[in-house]
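## retry 2 of 3
previous attempt timed out at serialization; input unchanged, resubmitting
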Amino acid sequence: MCRPSPIACSFSSQYTLGMTANEIIEEIKRLDLKEQLGVIRFAYQVDAERRLTGKELAELAERMVNTTDRAEEAIIREAMIRGFYSATAGRVGSGPRNKRAIAKRNRNKRSAKRV
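## retry succeeded, writing output
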């Protein structure tokens, strides 16, 4: 059963209820601060784990070539790198917690070799 919340819920397993992106944004604005932070965290996580398509990378490359602002160029370059090399795209159990565990294991391997 769906718990009551400011965002409309449904008993079906459908992701969307026919809402547009603008309607969803307006609903997010109505959430309390704690719930908004949860939405923001989710959006960052989705963005970090999503690999960009060839078309998206090409559009970013075009923007980077055409910009005269060095700061914007750096931001676009970082987005391209993150979108191209996203190692977690499409893998189950590959979120931030798993990345930290892998990094820790690799550090332990390196320190064991030094001894």
